[in-house]
Design goal:
Elements (H helix, E strand, L loop, with lengths): L11 H9 L4 H13 L3 H25 L2 H23 L2 H9 L4 H15 L1 H19 L9 H18 L2
Helix pairs in contact: 3-4, 3-8, 4-6, 4-7, 4-8, 5-6, 6-7, 7-8
Length: 169
């Protein structure tokens, strides 16, 4: 585990109940902490982008190992974090809804990518579409080879690089 992630302990019963409710434990904890501590969502966007970059590195490591399924899922996680980071930076309605509900639903991410693309550029929607395709066809369905995922990874790299540019300005 790298220095960019901190592990916390949580009683199993609480963890299981949160999962049973269909909530994302990481988002729930993150948003609760931000709210309780009065932290700036812009800082969260930067932290999420670091996480996106970590997942992208891991995806490339899985590509090198020839594991298309795990590479696909890590690439999707990178995409998810990049879209969340942009949504938080721009405080769009989908972010507000995720805050309210304590989690991001996939359809919020889809809507967020479309909304962001309309102002930032098609690289947001293209990156999201690539990540989601990898999530479905590379991970869940297991239909893509390492060679098949190369062009998708390039679109995700572009998403993260462009997100870094706009988040840091």
């Amino acid at each position: 585990m790298g220095e960019d992630v901190v592990l916390i302990e949580l009683p199993r019963a609480i963890y299981d109940r949160i999962k049973d409710l269909g909530l994302d434990i990481e988002d729930l904890l993150t948003y609760s902490i931000i709210k309780a501590a009065g932290l700036d969502p812009g800082e969260l966007a930067k932290a999420r982008l670091e996480l996106a970059e970590k997942y992208l590195r891991e995806a490339k490591e899985y590509v090198a190992k020839g594991d298309a399924a795990q590479a696909s899922e890590k690439a999707y996680k990178a995409t998810e974090e990049a879209v969340k980071a942009l949504a938080e930076k721009y405080n769009i309605p989908e972010f507000q809804q995720a805050l309210k509900e304590g989690r991001w639903f996939t359809h919020y991410l889809q809507k967020a990518s479309n909304r962001l693309a309309s102002t930032l550029g098609n690289w947001v929607a293209a990156g999201w579409a690539a990540g989601y395709a990898l999530h479905v066809w590379g991970f869940h369905e297991g239909k893509l080879s390492v060679e098949d995922i190369t062009s998708y990874l390039k679109l995700i790299e572009d998403l993260i690089a462009n997100a870094r540019r706009v988040i840091e300005t």
